Amino acid sequence: MILDGAREVDRIELSGDRDVVRARRRIADRMDALGARALRKTRFVTAVSEVARNAVVHGGGGVMTVYAFKSARIGIECRDRGPGIASIEQALSDGFSTTGSMGHGLGGAKRLSDAFEIDSRPGGGTVVRMLGSL
Amino acid sequence: MPPSALENVLDILKTDQDGVLAGWIEVADEEGVKRSDLFSEREGREQAASLLKAFRNGISERTDKDDFDIQAEHWADLRGVLGEITHERVERGVQPSEMAGFVLALKGPLFSRLKERLAKKPEQLVEEILIASKAIDAFAIYTNEVFIAEREAVIERQREEMMELSTPVVELWSKVLTLPLIGTLDSLRAQEVMENLLQAIVHYQAEVVILDITGVQTVDTQVAQHLIRTAAAVRLMGAKCIISGISPKIAQTMVQLGVDVGEVRTRSTIRTALTDALLTVGYAITPIKNHQEGTLV
Amino acid sequence: MSSAAAIYPVEGVLLVSIRDDITDTDIVDLQDALSERIADESANGVVLDISGLEIVDTFVGRVLAQLTSIARLLDAETFVVGMRPAVAMTLVELGMYLPENRTALSLTHALAKMRQMRDE
């Protein structure tokens, strides 16, 4: 698991779209405090936004846990209460086009993070884990 | 002081530090890791002495009886001394293996003294040698880590310097920037190039950017994609991007690769690109009337 | 619509300033409110100032493209201004080039470009 050896430092309840903004803010502030570079922060927070929105819109809400590492990285785990994703491959492939068609944005999150893991079972909710560097 | 598994080692270091020091330097000399060409004998002796002192202090502050962890608080001094010595020696060209050899040479004099003291207590002898050996090995590994970290820092610094050298964003005219790309354009460099360029757009409030690829050796699909993406990012910022220096060969490659340049404006020479760019910001280059060769206006 | 976005008329153009804490609901509300204002005020231009946005994700990117299309149907040109370098790089990495949107460095630049377009 990509979060091995990390320490939990924050927990954000995700139930409405205001919480997506809160998750972005909290993680951006944390990365600022850790001295992250502007580009790396923007990339990771954008990925966080996609994952948090996905949990709120498609996952019936959830919890985002933030992890700290000894090295210059940050990680999150987002656990939702949704029906799970039937085809992970499809969820990761859509939402991608030059015009920005509809999609879950998870593919975007995968692209913007340093490491990305997704576990989902129909009926069992979805867990997304991501790493970003500072 | 709590009873320690290293009590005899500690005692030796307390009562016979000079003897151990002399023995250590002797072994190091024999094994050819002295390098008197790179640092003087006096320096070597001073460094070894300060290491021994830190070793002794570390053991006496040590509370855990069994496991050895160089990252523990009471080894902070020793880490500092080791780091400093490694740093100094590496700067002068000592090899990491020589540095490790120097540290490991401490085992000889220390263990021979332990053997004398504990001749009648073989169990304790084995135990102390095991732990002390583990500690000294850890010191040697630590010097290697310091060495690697220092090398990496040097490489990173040089890479950054090269990057700055190779991606100079130049203000050609008010609101017009140019970025002459030279050499190869890998992903990492492409990202830095883009970042520098976009920041320069904000800084100079530039309206046009000329990306000159005359000096780029080869354009493959990846390089072409980088160029298109850079142009797209420039456009998102609100500036116009012109790619100049597209040779007939590169044009052919790009078409064969099926690269879609989309709305990106391309020009074969920086000269035409400049004319274009100036026109965009409301200027034109015109000849001076009655101009005579060699006349300075 | 909440205070996360504000619409001001400037020189016959609607300036929309979007704050970083805008929610998805706010931005959908903004789309409604802006469409109404364009029609009511016969605005011929819209400037979306996103200099306050630290991130633009796929949802916001999509809405920016939609706002532009809606405004175009209502006969108004839209400019996106003030995008931060890190945001531009992230959007490009996401493959969102926003080809429908016109862009400018700032409000001033956008107004100048609009005047130029009208003159031509």
From TrEMBL, chain A:
The lineage of its organism: Bacteria, Pseudomonadati, Pseudomonadota, Alphaproteobacteria, Sphingomonadales. Residues 19-130 form the Histidine kinase/HSP90-like ATPase domain. Coiled coil: none annotated. Pfam families: HATPase_c_2 (PF13581). This is Histidine kinase/HSP90-like ATPase domain-containing protein.
TrEMBL record, chain B:
Signal peptide: none annotated. It comes from Pacificimonas flava. CDD domains: STAS_RsbR_RsbS_like (cd07041). This is RsbR, positive regulator of sigma-B. Keywords: Phosphoprotein. SUPFAM superfamilies: SpoIIaa-like. Residues 166-277 form the STAS domain. The lineage of its organism: Bacteria, Pseudomonadati, Pseudomonadota, Alphaproteobacteria, Sphingomonadales. InterPro entries: Bact_StressResp_Reg, RsbRD_N_dom, STAS_dom, STAS_dom_sf.
TrEMBL record, chain C:
It comes from the Bacteria. CDD domains: STAS_RsbR_RsbS_like (cd07041). It comes from Pacificimonas flava. It holds the Pfam family STAS. Gene3D superfamilies: STAS domain. This is RsbS, negative regulator of sigma-B. Residues 3-114 form the STAS domain. PROSITE patterns: STAS. SUPFAM superfamilies: SpoIIaa-like (SSF52091). The lineage of its organism: Bacteria, Pseudomonadati, Pseudomonadota, Alphaproteobacteria, Sphingomonadales. InterPro entries: Bact_StressResp_Reg (IPR051932), STAS_dom (IPR002645), STAS_dom_sf (IPR036513).
